[in-house]
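ok so for the tutorial part 2 we go from a plain amino acid sequence to predicted C-alpha cells. step 1 is just haveing the sequence, like this:
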Amino acid sequence: MGTLPIFLDLPEVTLAHGYLEPGMSLSEQNPLIVCGTMGGERILRNRYDHPWYELYDGEKPVIVGSL
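step 2 — the prediction. this is what the C-alpha cells look like for a chain of 67 residues:
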C-alpha cells in the first residue's frame, strides 16, 4: 500500500483519496490532507472557513475517495 500513489493526475480529472488544499499544486499538497486523515481534515478546518471543495478553483474536476 505504501508504494501506491495518493493521487492520480489524469488528462481530464484528478483522483485523490481524501482532500485537496485549495490554491496549492498537486506537488505541494500535504500527504495528510490528500490521504484524508483526521489530522489533514483538522489542518483544513483550522486554515479555511469553508470546506476545501467550495474553495477549489482548479482547471479539472476532482474525484475523491477513488483510490
